[in-house]
Amino acid sequence: MQELTDVLDRERRLLEMVLFKLVEARHLLVADEARFLPWASAELERAVERVREATLLRAVVAQRVAVAHGLPAESTLMILLAQADEPFAAILAEQQEALHRLIGEIRDEVARAGSLAERQLRGIDAVLAAVSELQEARAE
């Protein structure tokens, strides 16, 4: 169980890093620093990839823990939590709650950044339309 709690703790920290990278990208959008967005995007992609790796590792470790406790290999984290002795039951419950909370925060941040990016794109479209009108007026 200790190995599983360690893996979940690592996954939690990695999700926090993803959230941080999303907030950072949104702040770049707000500050109108689009030139740094490719760097922020690359960092975000690396953070997401590390979360994917941690998620795979969690699945492997959870399967191993389940089998070691006489449970089906495909047992969910909820099943493992229900079967865990203290202090691991409390630790697993806290980690699961934290993971769910972080995923919700990440979803919210993605939505905020997406709507901000859409507004900025509309602003860029308006500028491009104005430039196009000026070019057409000069051509006449």
Question: Mind explaining what this structure looks like?
Answer:
The protein contains four helices and no strands. It is mainly α and 140 residues long. Helix 1 runs antiparallel to helix 2. The longest helix is centred in the C-terminal third of the chain and has 52 residues, at 88-139. It is elongated. It starts with a helix and ends with a helix. The mean pLDDT is 82.
Brief summary:
By secondary structure, the chain is mainly alpha-helical.
Distance between the termini: 76 Å
Helix percent band: over 70%
% residues in beta strands: under 5%
* Biggest beta-sheet profile: none
Low-confidence stretches: none
Mean pLDDT: 82
Give the topology.
Elements: H1 2-30, H2 37-68, H3 77-83, H4 88-139
Helix pairs in contact: 1-2, 1-4, 3-4
Features:
mainly alpha; 140 residues
